[in-house]
Fold this sequence. Notes:
This protein is mainly alpha-helical. 79% of the residues lie in helices and 0% in strands.
Amino acid sequence: MMTLYTSTSLAKDTIAILYYSIVLSAITVLVAMVIGMIQLLSVIANYSSGPFWDGVDSVGDHFDVIGGGICGAFVVFGAASVLIYKPWRRRYDRRSRVGVVEAVELQPIEEKELEEKRLGAGSLGEVE
């Protein structure tokens, strides 16, 4: 994140900063939820028995492996977000340009035409 904020090429690109902030926040929330779930299940395992709870106790004893998995997840998801960013950004820019072109191509309706459409739509009971 420090590289993102101090990079001269990315510091001015607010969409890139927002994209990477969302990715980092999502990874952090996911990791926090996994750790919280492991801790909660470990507390419940102290008062329960069975093969599932034995597995929860085993997971609780190997936090070094879990920590390595968390570091690996940050590296893998961070690298994936860097690889996915350019195609996503091209599609985002293409969509935003199409929206601008469509808005420019729209012709304003004259007030007279608008009035005629409004009268024509509500004139079911008119006598000619």
